[in-house]
UniProtKB/TrEMBL annotation:
GO terms for biological process: carbohydrate catabolic process; cell wall macromolecule catabolic process; peptidoglycan catabolic process. It comes from the Bacteria. InterPro entries: GH, Glyco_hydro_25, Glyco_hydro_fam25_subgr. The keyword Hydrolase applies. Pfam families: Glyco_hydro_25. This is GH25 family lysozyme M1 (1,4-beta-N-acetylmuramidase). SMART domains: Glyco_25. Keywords: Glycosidase, Hydrolase. GO terms for molecular function: lysozyme activity.
Amino acid sequence: MADAVEHLIDISVYNSVNDWNAVRADGIVGASIKVSQQVNYLNPSCGAQVAGARAAGVAPGGYHFGDPRVDAAQQARFFVDNARQHGLFDDDALAPMYDAENWEGGGLVWPSPQVLNSHIAEHIRVVRQETGVARHLVYGSLSWWQSRWIDPDVWADEDVLLWVAVYNGQPGYLQGWSHPNDALHQHTSDGIVAGIPGRVDKNVTLRGRRIGDLVNGGNDMQLSDRMLNAWGGTPTMEEVFRYIDLRSTEAAQAAAAANAKLDALLGRDVGTFAEADLAQELLTQSLTGKLDTLPDDQFDALVKAVAADQERRARTRSA
């Protein structure tokens, strides 16, 4: 059984949320919200749902319900234009999701695996081209993954993660099927979550993935996890959002202050961090006081983690 760590929901216009703070308090860290379908349908509740989730510290994301009857590129641009209005390509948002399923009542039936997979591939290509966001989620039922009706070998690279639906009452268990990119298990459509009247789709992460693995900001958010875990803490979504949001004119001053703090604590020059990420962690999250009592080995590990992360970003920028 895969390791289930974080809990998320996915919702559409048919789900009303009375209290997003109660949703967050019930352990939900993310919500994928339907944005669009074809090139003429928009979820009228999307804006309020995104704003409510974000205000409560639940990472919002957007998804498009794919349809073989309309050009894939047109659908992707329609999704992008409308999801962008709600900040769903910001670093703190869940990766965009492509919903691949039939809706026979609405006349939506995928005619073949070839058509479906070509639509998925084109959707991902256009969304990446239009937004610069590499990470993507693709949703489908377990039977389609098992039969390769949805075939990740056609369109998935390391930034495309798989969302598998099978209602088996065992969160995190995909009944023997697996893929290196599997990331989420939708284990029920009959879930109960505080703050939401009625039933709702519930999901868990797979392979020990955290919320930072599923958002557009991805690797930058993993830095937050590593740094806080160095002294046994776990970042709240509010802390993660602050980390992402603080790309301001004060960054250079904050970085200098953080470096001075490091120098004083270690009694040596640890060098200058060109990026302000370390300062963001130490200063904006009010964590500097914890460093005074942090054991030397943990502090050194913390500094190395920051340096390694910066090195990785430098390589990415120069690539």
